[in-house]
Design goal:
elongated; 33% helix; six-stranded antiparallel beta barrel
Length: 312
């Protein structure tokens, strides 16, 4: 249709008629005079709409499926988060149980030795200052920590404090090659000096070259003047090897430390030394020897066995 004066007049007329019908339909409500025409139109165009709907439904279903898939994904993600949180909680509970166990052992050692301690947690391993065997703990000058204080845990000697900040401190571990501590043999009172060897046993030089020492003997710290850097009686380790005595002035031992320096978590800094030397009271109880089962073999003579001279 060309755009002429007549065509534009017809368009205006049709729009006016449409508005008039809409107005009549709205005012008539359920009794609208055009209701019959609407039903007729529905009867004519209904099947067409239904066909179009059937054609479009798969697309709608797909969109709905994507929407539901997103919802299911969200629920799955929520469940995964809850599962991860539960696992983290269980892991945290296991870690808390481990820490409680470490703390119990630490408090027992402190009680046996009458050490006044400040508990701390290891927050870093190693040092930016070099290749030393060190740890950083979350206690410092604000907690009463000072340089050259003894550090221990529930197993024994950990090391000594070397650097102190307001809220943290650096501890030189007993297995560091620059670490040396005076030691005393259990019961025998033989004195020596233990030095760290990294991941190898501690090396101990006894002052008495003729000292009677054997594998399994135990050592504790001898203590320092004014109890710094070491308080007495802290368990050091167990003799694992004794070098043959060559008639020298000293005797060399190799000692497996009680402390596992790669598994440190809860430690205690001795802020108050004991009033008297606890001697060997802090050492752990010796393991009870496991009895060796005795097997008795009884030989029963066989009926077919040849008779002896006496039987003949």
């Amino acid at each position: 249709m060309r755009d002429t004066k007549e065509s534009r007049l017809l368009l205006v007329l049709l729009v006016a008629i449409a508005f008039a019908l809409i107005t009549v339909d709205i005012r008539g409500g359920r009794n609208s005079p055009v209701d019959g025409a609407r039903h007729a139109a529905a009867a004519v165009f209904g099947p067409v709409e239904d066909g179009l709907s059937s054609a479009v439904d798969p697309v709608g279903d797909a969109v709905s499926a994507v929407r539901d898939s997103g919802s299911r994904h969200d629920r799955l993600a929520t469940l995964e988060k809850e599962n991860a949180a539960l696992k983290a909680k269980l892991g945290s509970d296991d870690r808390n149980r481990s820490r409680l166990k470490q703390l119990d052992k630490l408090l027992k050692v402190a009680g046996d030795g009458q050490y006044g301690i400040k508990g701390a947690q290891v927050i870093a391993i190693g040092s930016a200052q070099g290749f030393s065997w060190t740890i950083t703990i979350d206690a410092g000058a604000d907690d009463g920590i000072r340089r050259d204080m003894t550090v221990l845990n529930g197993d024994g000697l950990v090391g000594r404090v070397t650097t102190v900040g307001p809220g943290t401190s650096t501890v030189l571990l007993a297995n560091d090659p620059d670490f040396t501590v005076g030691t005393r043999m259990e019961a025998g009172d033989e004195l020596g000096f233990a030095s760290g060897q990294g991941d190898r046993p501690l090396r101990v030089e006894l002052l008495n070259g003729k000292a009677e020492v054997k594998k399994g003997d135990r050592l504790v710290t001898f203590g320092s003047q004014a109890d710094k850097p070491f308080v007495p009686g802290v368990p050091v380790g167990v003799v694992s090897r004794v070098d043959p005595s060559g008639g020298g002035l000293t005797r060399t031992l190799y000692v497996t430390p009680y402390v596992s320096f790669t598994k440190l978590d809860i430690v205690g800094v001795v802020v108050e030394a004991p009033k008297k030397d606890p001697r060997d009271t802090v050492l752990p109880a010796r393991p009870k020897p496991v009895p060796t089962p005795t097997v008795t073999v009884t030989v029963t003579p066989s009926a077919d066995a040849p008779a002896t001279a006496e039987q003949q």
